[in-house]
Design goal:
elongated; single chain; about 475 residues; alpha+beta; 12 helices; 8 strands; 4-stranded antiparallel β-sheet
Length: about 475
Amino acid sequence: MTIAPSTETDEPQKPLAKPDGSTRGWSSLRPLVLRLHFYAGVLVAPFLLVAALTGGLYAASFSIEEIVYADRTTVAEVGDEKLPISEQVAAARKAHPEGTLSAVRPSPEDDATTRVMLTGVEGIDETNSLAVFVDPYTAEVRGALEQYGSTGALPVRTWIDKFHANLHLGETGRLYSELAASWLWVISGGGLVLWFARRRAQRKVRGTSGRRRTLGLHGTVGVWAALGFFFLSATGLTWSTYAGANIEVLRTELHQATPAVSAAAGGDHGAHGGGSTDDGTAAEGDLDKILAAARAEGLGDPVEIVPPADASSTYVIKQVQRSWPTKQDAVAVDPATAEVTDTLRFADFPILAKLSRWGIDAHTGVLFGLANQLVLIALAASLVVLIIWGYRMWWQRGRASSFGRPIPRGAWQHVPPQILVPALAVIAVLGYFVPLLGIPLAVFIAVDVVLGEIAHRRGKRSYGGRAEAK
């Protein structure tokens, strides 16, 4: 990917000549790609820089979280046998009787604590839960922390996550990250086209200096990182505000939405003693039977147990492993009989639902664990370096005394109609489905046209004044 492009030489640029019948193919498209790439890089680069820095920090947040909260998430000593899950939940509720039991994540590993999640707790955001950490061997409560999201992010990772997603500015702040994701693939694609269209001798780094060397380094790193940038752009858009909503609608129309297990019970079980007690805790013994039923269906750790929402609902037990191999099976269990009423296998997910799951998990760094996170950090560092080199090339183009002049206007006039019209149609469709690509592009074109007209009229007045003077 190249953020700020260069011309073939360092000579001052001349205005684009008027098109003629011989203008065809790449020679007609290159000025347009160059101009779009230049302005997109210059204007969007600050948003990309913030996204890269915060994204790299988020990739490192998993390791940070493990270190900071090790005293809560791990046990002091591994025992011989874990206690029944009902005893662990009872210990958590005794220490924290406030709120309502919303979910339980039994200890997934020998040295990991069990998480008992409570909602409606004073001082905890209503969209989050209070996670109570219980030693599965002794039922000792090792602490409690606010937890966010389906990955169980604790305070440090939650703060970094929201910083990357919206800069802690709420829904409005999400526009910055969507803008960055909307344009990253465009800038990357433009950079690739410009790089491979250059003559081979002009791509080399060794033996060059100045702006040519910066361009060579910039292009080489960009080419190697481009595939990763395309991936980050595509997956980032899947859960963005506007493009993400359009993608979800499209998936639904194609019958590719992510399915969910049915939590509707076979009848009213309110009189059977199942479900939850008045204080929101699970009825004694229920959780052990419920978990055993899920285990019998092949649901291995890690799992999450979600109590019934009401008297006519079932328990839902779902696997929550997003690392490879992905474990996302789920079952619904009747609280009165401990019988499985519905089963959902990840293997039966529609292909786009699977790809969405894998894409998001790879984007966040959980699919392949530490290796995944290191790749994301490397991509973030590459993007930061490319942006710095891009601005440096712009400065060097101005002979290192000021930023160089922009690419001349009028590039679109050189594109033959048989290429321009289909290209505009594709851009219009993309702009509709990806609004934060389409709207800024439309604004740029409008402003560019207005500025061009102003410059044209000033030129005519200047020409007329010289003619009168003569």
